[in-house]
Amino acid sequence: MPLHTERLLDSDMMALSTGEEFKTALRLWCKSWNQEPAASLPDDDRILAHLAGKELAGWRKVKAMALRGFIKCSDGRLYHPVIAQEAINAMSRREQHQASKDGDNDRKREEREDRKLLFGALRDIGVILPAKGTSTSHLRKVAASHGIQIIVTDNHKVVTVTPKGSHNESHGVVTAKTGTGTGTYIKEEAAAASPPPTRTHAHEAGDDPPPPSSEPSKPTSLDTPAGYAVLVRRWEKERGKASTVTSSDPRLLVWAQKRVTEAQLREAYDLAVADRELAQDHGPINAGFLDVFLAKVLKPPGGDSALNRQSSAVPPKHWAVSWSGIVAKGEELGIVQESGELAPTFKARVFAAAQLSEGEKAMLRADYGVSL
Questions:
Q1: Global pTM value
Q2: 3-state secondary structure of 261
């Protein structure tokens, strides 16, 4: 309760009351502030004597001056107009403070949603920023430099992605809608569902596309890295895993060039999952690991990924990628899985005997998700 000292010192209460009366009045003012309703007192001498800290007889001696200014109202309680006005003012300030606090919470929630959307959009084009230490203003600036922005339409947040140097009239924008509070980013789903952009500008002679192939058409394929990423993420989510496969992985571009169908990708994925389970490996299926089984499904050389055909300073150890390969390598090295031996323990013995270099281990971890 605020105390206006200048007003109090010039009041009739100060001029007319004794020390005991003034002390009792001040005590009752403070007590009334915490009553319900605020600024009121019960009209009962026994309760008033208790609130004033006095015996009933002592209370009656100071009652008249101690209750100066209090008015009995229709609810049967005593109210002090000055204290009541202060209570109303205090309630108004409290409501304003709460409204301001709610506004701050709403702004913070909006900022968290925006950060989630922008980080997701940047990650899908291969731009990785650390969540910790990256300010929202810097995040927006980086996103804008890559043609990414957030707009609100029809009570939904929309992420628009305009590739650098593209024109909306020929390429359009990729959008992702999300309801308030979801923060879901679905750019890749939109990209997978959208047909490739058509050429609208004039072209010079010799720029015409080659005539249609006379070969029989292949089964319908997803054709885009985004489409493959969407499928693998969905399958991994159903398995309770957080997928690390993104459309920026160059292996997915190789799959698109080979026109891998959904059925072929699913068969390879099921083989990869079965191999993980045999090895008792709870890690997710990444693009490198899936690529090994996709090559088996497509039957090399046609199924051998372009990346696997490239020369490398550290030749890949294909036997280390699958459980069957690990078992075969163990037999080659004279190591057999003992009765009751856990798969991870057996795998560790084989890897130790194979004496893999640090470079080979790094490649197996990064490209194939192999647990070493």
A1: 0.32
A2: strand
Alpha helices, H only, 172-261 = 187-193, 225-238, 250-257
Cβ–Cβ contacts within 10 Å for residue 243, how many?
Answer: 19
Residue 39 burial by Cβ neighbours in a 10 Å radius (0-12, 13-18, 19+) = buried
Q: What are phi and psi of 218, to 5 degrees?
A: -80, 165
Answer for the pair 303, 296: CB distance below 8 angstroms, yes or no.
Answer: yes
What is the distance between the alpha carbons of residues 245 and 186, in angstroms, rounded to a whole number? 14
Per-domain residue ranges of the chain: 5-79, 106-184, 186-195+220-308, 311-372
Residues, the chain:
372
What pLDDT does 174 receive? 40
Q: How many Å apart are CA 154 and CA 289, to the nearest integer?
A: 42
Closest CA to 284 of 245, 324, 228: 245
pLDDT at 199: 41
What CA–CA distance (Å, rounded) separates 271 from 201? 45
Query: Hey, what are 294's tokens?
Result: 């996709």
Half-sphere exposure of 371 (CA within 13 A, CB side): 16
For residue 161, the 8-state DSSP code is E
Peptide bond before residue 301 is cis, with ω within 30 degrees of 0: yes
Give the model confidence (pLDDT) of 16-36 as tens digits: 889 899 999 889 989 998 888
Are the CB atoms for 260 and 294 separated by under 8 Å? Answer: yes
Dihedral (C-alpha) 295, 299, 305, 309: value to the nearest 10 degrees? 120
Element (H, E) at 153: strand 148-153
Nearest alpha carbon to residue 347 among 361, 362, 358: 361
DSSP label of 221? B
pLDDT at 197: 44
